[in-house]
């Protein structure tokens, strides 16, 4: 009779193993009975959990590879943006420096032209004054010659200032 009982129990265990689902077979469950553990092992419940875990690991690895690829692309874009920004800043600095140099030259040129204009006005005023400023003292030929030479020297200096060669 004990043999019959043993056969009946093993048949129940087999049927119980078929009745267990892979979700019910948790290898970390310490409260599971020996029969449940045998049923999970014989029915392939443990193997199904292992296979599901391996599939999940492969999916996670694929996602991780995609994340790394996206991270590399973002890093490359950041590097390119920094380089573009560096080039743009350099160009902006050079443009600003050139603009300041041009403004300084224009200011100097304007000052030079104002100075030359004042000298030309003074020269015209002296020429308009004519020979002798008072009728009481007539200008001598030597005085006229000296004044004419002084005026000629001023004209030569003005021409040199303007870049003309006398």
Would you spell out the secondary-structure blueprint of this structure?
Blueprint lengths: L1 H18 L14 H10 L1 H85 L11 H22 L4
Helix pairs in contact: 1-2, 3-4
Supply the number of structural domains. 2
Write down the overall geometry. rod-shaped
Count all strands and give the number.
Answer: 0
Low-pLDDT stretches = none
Distance between the termini: 143 Å
- Look at the helices and sheets and give the structural class: mainly alpha
Put simply, the count of helices is: 4
Biggest sheet, open or closed, and with what strands and sense? none
What does the average pLDDT come to? 78
Rg on CA atoms, Å? 53 Å
Protein name: Lipoprotein
Keywords: Coiled coil, Signal
Coiled coil: 106-161
Organism: Halomonas saccharevitans
Give a short summary of the structure.
This protein has 166 residues and is an all-alpha fold.
Structural description of this entry:
Keywords: Coiled coil, Signal. It comes from Halomonas saccharevitans. This is Lipoprotein. The chain is 81% helix and 0% strand. With 166 residues, the chain is mainly α. The mean pLDDT is 78. It contains four helices and no strands. It is rod-shaped. Helix 1 packs across helix 2 (34-43) and helix 3 (45-129) runs antiparallel to helix 4. The longest helix has 85 residues, at 45-129. It folds into two domains: 1-43; 47-123. The chain has helices at 2-19, 34-43, 45-129, 141-162.
């Amino acid at each position: 009779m004990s043999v019959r009982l043993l056969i009946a129990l093993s048949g129940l265990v087999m049927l119980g193993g078929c009745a267990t689902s892979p979700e019910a077979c948790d290898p970390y469950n310490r409260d599971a009975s020996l029969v449940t553990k045998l049923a999970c092992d014989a029915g392939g419940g443990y193997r199904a959990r292992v296979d599901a875990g391996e599939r999940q690991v492969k999916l996670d690895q694929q996602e991780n590879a995609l994340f790394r690829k996206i991270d590399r692309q973002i890093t490359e874009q950041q590097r390119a943006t920094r380089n573009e920004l560096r080039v743009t800043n350099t160009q902006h600095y050079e443009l600003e420096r050139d603009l300041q140099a041009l403004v300084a030259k224009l200011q100097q040129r304007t000052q030079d032209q104002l100075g030359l204009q004042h000298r030309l006005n003074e020269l015209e005023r002296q020429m308009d004054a004519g020979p002798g400023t008072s009728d009481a003292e007539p200008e001598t030929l030597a005085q006229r010659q000296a004044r004419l030479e002084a005026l000629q020297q001023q004209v030569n200096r003005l021409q040199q200032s303007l870049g003309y060669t006398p």
